[in-house]
Amino acid sequence: ANSLEELWICEGPLKDLSGLEACKQLRRLYLYDCAIENASQIAQLTSLDVLWIQNNRLKNMEVSIIYLVYF
After folding, report:
1. How many angstroms separate the CA atoms of 25 and 57, rounded?
2. Where are the alpha helices (DSSP H) in the chain?
3. CA-CA distance, 15 to 18, in Å (whole number)?
């Protein structure tokens, strides 16, 4: 996971993002149309440039990302 720069997990039953914080080189993350309720791990992805996380079940989005791009 150290060299992973782009990850797509979309339109599925994904609920838990545990372990995602290990992907330190992740630059583009696509998690739309899933069942995610907690996205706190995303705050640890300091290389992240792009995040698509719409249409989930987020209850609290406490994420500090300097550059966030929506397409």
Report:
1. 26
2. none
3. 9
Question: What is the model's pLDDT at position 60?
Answer: 65
Output the pTM of the full model: 0.81
Q: How confident is the model at residue 66 (pLDDT cuts 50, 70, 90)?
A: very low
Supply φ then ψ for residue 38, to 5 degrees. -130, 120
- Residue from 48, 2, 67 nearest 31 by CA: 48
CA 42 vs CA 30, 32, 54: distances in Å: 12, 14, 14
Among 22, 2, 17, smallest CA distance to 56 is for: 17
| Measured distance CA(54)–CA(2) in Å, rounded | 26
